[in-house]
Amino acid sequence: MAEIGHASPRGVTGLVAEDNWQLTFPNSTRVYSKMLRQDAQVQSILKAVTLPIRRSTWRIDPNGAPDAVVQHIASDLRLPVLGQERGTVPRRRGRVSWDAHLQKALLALPYGHMFFEQVYQVGDDGLEHLVKLAPRLPGTVSKINVADDGGLESIEQHALGHGGKPPVIPVSRLVAYCFEPMDSTWLGSSILRPAYKHWKLRDRYLRLEAQVLERNGMGIPTYEASPMPEDARRELQDGQAIVEGIRSGAHAGVSIPNGARFDLKGISGQVASPREAIDYHDAMMAKAVLAHVLNLSGKGGSYALAETQNDLFVQSLQSIADWIIDTANQHIVEDLVELAWPDYDGPAPLLMADPIASKKELTAEALALLANAKVLLMDPPTEAEVRRRYQLPEKDPDYIPELKNGGGDDAETSEAPAGTD
After folding, report:
1. Where are the alpha helices (DSSP H) in 3-55?
2. What is the SS3 assignment for 200?
């Protein structure tokens, strides 16, 4: 049954259209780039959101696919296979670096969208291999073409040089990361959009605070002429030069006529400080991405509340990782399987990642507890890893521990003598 309605954004403003001209595409790319480049709080927000996702361990789940298909995907993406020990990592040349791709894909968070062009090449085995996921950064995209049903048709980039033809990349060659779209424009939503007004106001208050410190930090130099000067105009001109040129230093000072007065006037009364407003807008920017941890000031508070807020933040990061996984499985893994094995119709391997913040650093005490509880066995690989982490000498391969007989759980059972039951 065919569709009746349409999802085309052409000629439709709608209630979800961006009402700030500076944040409409492609102007938004320039604004968000400025925020990322110049603002420390914005950089902290982006790193708080992206680094835990990048630090997670990414793997290929076989998902019932044949071993040849699984190894093909794992080799091209340079990722380990779930349930297998990580073997020799393939050379990076001619293959995709998943960590580098993930770092670029997460740029969809501040910009709302991120596109990649798939580049394939036939290998020595006669199969198609993914050799590159070329990023097409938001600043290079001039137009996004959308079909009437809301599907992506192609993207257009700015032409190289004068008179060049703008490249048009069809959707069949694209991997499109579109973060939380509110319409069918494929522009997505930036995590910095709710923080924009707070960034704008805080930037203004920071400039104001600098002016306040510059004007009032050392007081205002004032000069009062003597009561009966011989040349009032000349003395006032000299006094003006003194107050304008006053500087601190080991030998700094002023010389004034008899009866004249020089003073550094402080502020009388209470002056509003912009610092409280600056801190408020900083906190709101972090709250926009649920990064309440960035607002901890060390003044105390409820540990239970802080843990609840952190759990909510981790859940939001997990949802972002799941979105990356879903997009990559559809448009990277499945596309590669279809190209390499056109006649294969079975299940495809799946990209997966360990839960966010699941990596834990084990202390020596924790290792001892796990070993005593028989949860962790000190097999040779585990023992070698413990020695490496705690900078202990390597185990002598010729060392054989003495076996002690005498009962108990740790005693070794010796063979019974010949002729006995």
Report:
1. 27-38, 40-55
2. helix
